[in-house]
Amino acid sequence: MTDVPSARGAEVGRRIGVGLMYGLFKPRVLGAWRVPAAGPVIFAVNHSHNVDGPMVMGVAPRPTHFLIKKEAFIGPLDPFLTGIGQLKVDRHSTDRTAISRALGVLEQGGVLGIFPEGTRGEGDFASIRAGLAYFAVRSGAPIVPVAVLGSSDRPGRLVKALPPLRSRVDVVFGDPFEAGDGSGRRTRKALDEATERIQKQLTAHLENARRLTGRQGLPRFTEADPATLE
């Protein structure tokens, strides 16, 4: 098995995230108690801004290893992101090393973070890729849906600027659920069916998160290859 990213590094990353996110913004976290306290877990996070990953890292109750596009690992960010246990993935090929390392995180009872939409966009889970289903079915790990609301006020556009300082960003954790049907099948049809189930769960969670936070007009969850996740 390829080397598994450092769990200790991910804890350091979580502490850095806590300081940065609470120092720059005003996170409001709902449902963190729903995250299983131990064992493998997959966070499925909507994605409309680059701050979404660090925000979840900083407010989640457990250290998280995110699959992040290799283009982000440039200059000094490369050793830094690697050091805090994050996973580099090539979105344009079948990145077997990244897949193996991500499965290793789950096999060791860690938390894997995935943006199932594959890249920044509407942040509405409308285009879920099959990669999430693959990891969930292959590992048996439950999925915890995570809605980040307020990081972008222009859904559908790739906003590079940070949200206004001290602005409120809501992070809502949902109930964990199983992606598979209990049969253990890993066929393409089984993964397609799992992806459909996942999308329904994520979309329902996002709508509920909007109601809870009063952000009805902001972003929606939608299909990926394991190696094309940002």
Any overview of this molecule?
The longest helix has 26 residues, at 188-213. Mean pLDDT is 84; it is low at 120-127, 154-159 and 218-230. This protein has helices at residues 7-24, 52-59, 77-83, 96-107, 130-139, 188-213; strands at residues 26-30, 41-45, 65-69, 87-89, 111-114, 143-149, 168-173. The chain has a seven-stranded mixed β-sheet with strand order 1-7-6-2-5-3-4, with helices on both faces. The chain is of the alpha/beta class. It is globular. β3, α3 and β4 (87-89) form a beta-alpha-beta unit. The chain has a single domain, classed as Glycerol-3-phosphate (1)-acyltransferase. It contains six helices and seven strands, in the order αββαβαβαβαββα. α1 packs across α2 and α5 (130-139) packs across α6.
Question: What are the SSEs and their pairings?
Answer:
Blueprint lengths: L6 H18 L1 E5 L10 E5 L6 H8 L5 E5 L7 H7 L3 E3 L6 H12 L3 E4 L15 H10 L3 E7 L18 E6 L14 H26 L17
Parallel strand pairs: 1-7, 2-5, 2-6, 3-4, 3-5
Antiparallel strand pairs: 6-7
Helix pairs in contact: 1-2, 5-6
What is the gist of this entry?
The protein is α/β, with parallel strands linked by helices and 230 residues long. The protein has one domain: Glycerol-3-phosphate (1)-acyltransferase (3-Layer(aba) Sandwich), CATH 3.40.1130.10. It has helices spanning 7-24, 52-59, 77-83, 96-107, 130-139, 188-213, and strands spanning 26-30, 41-45, 65-69, 87-89, 111-114, 143-149, 168-173.
